[in-house]
Amino acid sequence: MFSSSGVIGIQLVVTMVMASVMQKIIPHYSLARWLLCNGSLRWYQHPTEEELRILAGKQQKGKSKKDRKYNGHIENKPLTIPKDIDLHLETKSVTEVDTLVLHYFPEYQWLVDFTVAATVVYLVTEVYYNFVKPTQEMNISLVWCLLVLSFAIKVLFSLTTHYFKVEDGGERSVCVTFGFFFFVKAMAVLIVTENYLEFGLETGFTNFSDSAMQFLEKQGLESQGPVSKLTFKFFLAIFCSLIGAFLTFPGLRLAQMHLDALNLATEKITQTLLHINFLAPLFMVLLWVKPITKDYIMNPPLGKENVPLMTEATFDTLRLWLIILLCVLRLAMMRSHLQAYLNLAQKCVDQMKKEAGRISTVELQKMVARVFYYLCVIALQYVAPLVMLLHTTLLLKTLGNHSWGIYPESSLPVDSSLHSSSVYSELPSTDGKMKVTVTQITVALSSLKNIFTPLLFRGLLSFLTWWIAACLFSTSLFGLFYHQYLTVA
């Protein structure tokens, strides 16, 4: 029954409570701050100029710079020290006070804390839908998930624009090159038949096009469809190339942190988890490769009677759970990767000691301090792809009409939709303008449900989830090859 309690119900209460929690509690108890400031991360402090002067054997009386006369003027020459100086950096635990000076810390804190809030809202809403099973309510948790994805993409876009501002570093060329590479890759993937990559994109688009044509015909309009398949795939490929360009440097950075974390790890179980974490996007990619996973499970070579190991619905559910578990693993390994990044300060100093010549104290201090200053940038590059993977999976479950149960009792057909006749019959017997307004809104919503069916969302979100994992693995694999074989040690 369509009523005010259905519109202003439990979902809106949960949303208002979570908004209050974000305003009152999260500023004091923040997961984003806890991940950085729980005492496990240690950063390297840059040495003072006095300490460097003592180490270099250049103790001067009250002066930190040499004065030299040049054409009648006094020239201040910065103090320089030998690069092979015996320097050992002091470490300090990351505290909340230290994070105040970090670049992109507000963006990092907002993304992580808002993601936590959105995930809690989604979980509560799923429990509510599981027990109440409302038919006329809009799922507000979908709006939260979409906001999380928009914030993650916005942050990645902001980080990518900084690389375009660098003139001589080559980062701009790397982004453009990978963007074109991913555009070609997306076009190639989109022409692969469903026999190899079973996203359901073709079926979903066909269902969307047919439903839209039927809707336009009912309105007395003649149309061949809202958009052609070629145009749809072209714009989808452009969007995929942008996602690939945004994920380029997160993937390259992940490869470097993975190698450094492996060198830092001493226990076998930690090394194993690091390897699984690195290969997690590959596992996600293989989940949609039909000959490797679904065909093998549906038709296993176990004798003459090819009895399926599970149903298709169970396989889809297991796929969702596996992606979520791999996302949880990636979050659990976050500190190991961030500590590996912070160790770059000492690594740069050790590399400097192998070089000949001299370096100014200011440049040395900048080299060490820069690592900690960009800690939240690296944290965002690690977290943002994880957030995108998690919430596209949650959207896939809900909009694709999947189930969380491994053995679902019954599942609605993905192409089921509401018809206008049933909508009219469910309207309350009110009078006047209220009845007309409710009728118009309900018919409009049912028409949208008829056009944007679970088949369309299942195909589109499956492809986007697969694409994010594929881009992240491609860039991290290239980064692994680059740091292992192309970088001069």
From TrEMBL:
Q: Which GO terms describe its cellular component?
A: membrane
Q: What InterPro entries does this protein map onto?
A: Transmembrane_161A/B
Provide the topology term for how it sits in the membrane.
Answer: Multi-pass membrane protein
Q: Where in the cell is it found?
A: Membrane
- Entry keyword set: Glycoprotein, Membrane, Transmembrane, Transmembrane helix
GO process terms (BP) = regulation of cardiac muscle cell action potential; regulation of heart rate
Which stretches are transmembrane?
Answer: 6-26, 110-129, 141-161, 173-192, 234-252, 273-293, 371-390, 455-482
Q: Which PANTHER family match?
A: RE42071P, TRANSMEMBRANE PROTEIN 161B
What family is it from?
Answer: Belongs to the TMEM161 family.
Q: What is this protein called?
A: Transmembrane protein 161B
Instruction: Give the species.
Output: Cavia porcellus (Guinea pig)
